[in-house]
Amino acid sequence: MKKFIARQDLDAKTRYIPPIIPPTTGRLFTEKIAIIGGCPAGLSCAFYLAEKGYRPTVFEKNENRAI
């Protein structure tokens, strides 16, 4: 089922691409933040940090992780 839905999205003429969300704080931070693991929790953490103005880096052990 998931493969079918993914194929439908890839073949669609108009794909949904989420907009880039600018930081809500209006400022950018220079601190380095590493997130270990590209699981849903890690990606969610990276999203909310980026939304606050940080630039997190996500590290994943596997090169081709399917989510």
TrEMBL record:
InterPro entries: FAD/NAD-bd_sf (IPR036188). Gene3D superfamilies: FAD/NAD(P)-binding domain (3.50.50.60). SUPFAM superfamilies: Nucleotide-binding domain. It comes from the Bacteria. This is FAD-dependent oxidoreductase.
